[in-house]
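User: ok so my PI wants both of these folded by tonight, can you help

Assistant: No problem, let's get them done. Here's the first:
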Amino acid sequence: MAQKETGKLTHAVALRVVQTIAPRIDHPLNIMDERGIIIASSDPKRLGNPHPDALRALEENRTVFTAQADPVSGQQPGVNVPLYAGGIVQSVVGVTGTPQEVASLAQLISLTVQLLLTQQEEHVRSTVRATQISDMLSGLVSGSATDKALAGQLKQLGFTAPWSLSLLLDEDDPEPHEAALKINSARWVLSSGPIEVPAAARAILGLPRTQPGDLLVDAENLRTLGAVPALVPAAGLRELWNEDMALSAARAPESHCRSLARRTAQISEDHALTLLALAASATQTEAIARLTVHRNTLIQRMDRIKQVTGSDPRVPGELLALLNSIYARARLGEMHIF
């Protein structure tokens, strides 16, 4: 019978198999290692002894059936089934009894052990992979990763370009992602292609990248913005949000932000949203659609902003100054717009 390649049988797994199965069958059960030595048995007195038929199974790479007892060696009738690891017979399951009675049982137990070995190997492989992914993300988050090291990790772990690095905040029910690292209330997610983001999550969704160095830059930017959660946009505001302006506000000294904030100190959040929509739109008609307001409402808001701030949002340069002020107020916690 062809056997699936699995991990090596350990003493712990062998003992667990015997302790689980032996009380449920009417035949003695032995498990031997790659030397044919009994490492687990329903008869503890046999532990550490060589098993002649197990040695034959190992040497001849086949199931050994023994019909007669051997008074010289003490060998009893039974069936010994080889187990494989890496394509090589490395252990044996033996059931004592008339071969016709125990052959099927021995094969069943062998398949059970083979399944346990496969699960053990998959668990080890999964644990190792999870650790490697965590190390890679930790390097990105901490800023200790290098271009060369990151490229090697991405290749080793099978993450194909384009990649994206995203920062998610305030998730009540986070979506499962293989490459994710939770730090306090923030979750960093590295993905090949787009990610699914819960509707309620505030997030910065990374752009597709084909160079590891670009991911390092993204990581530095996300570290900066993650330190100022007030600048991370909610789902409904991502299209109006400008990362460059948010980064400028996050990196600016507090005294400079306070100076910028004075320009828009007297305008409301509705007026602030109007400024964001104007900046994100090619035309006033597009801004109206984003805000879902009447054209007259937009005009009235722009007039009011000019009256209060002295800056006309219809003029690109003055709009830019107003936006910098809005982001500075968000950074200072004076306006909870994002």
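One down. Here's the second:
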Amino acid sequence: MALPFGDEAARYGAVSRIAHWLTALAVIALIGLGWVMADLPLGAQKLELYALHKSIGALVLMVTLARLGWRLAQRGPSGHAEHAPWERVMAKAAHVGLYAGLLAMPLTGWIASSAANFPVSVFGLFTLPNLVAPDQALREAAATLHGALAWGVVGLIVLHAAGAVKHHLIDRDDTLRRMLPLARRPSR
């Protein structure tokens, strides 16, 4: 059976699943690139990795904005009545935190680049306008916030994944299957 385009009461549709996993892969790439490029000496390789990091970050910002629009237009799957109230609160808080991080991370990176007067080229296809005038103090503050947010997003990702695994392996419910790319229709 084909996966529906839109979300249903019992599972996420193709758009939500593709956007979720595209974002997950992009964030994993960004974390890896950020880790590697920070330790490289200034040179062509470091600049290439920064350019790739900025391009993927811009893609994450665009996909996240589209996801938020989609979320507003789609009801999405209903929650599980058997989940404890604290689990529902934690899930909601983690999702809000992840969306906030997926917006704040690219924006602080873009501000840092703008303040350093290094334009953000998106895969060489187009260049984003500078958000601020060159300002070394602002660049440093935005870069510091960008790094701190990265650790916060990593923590939320770990919490999000741990919750999904807990529901799958311990609770044995369909929470994880509702978002897996090729999962069958839940039996609820």
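The beta strands are 120-122, 126-128. DSSP finds four helices and two strands in the chain. Good luck tonight!
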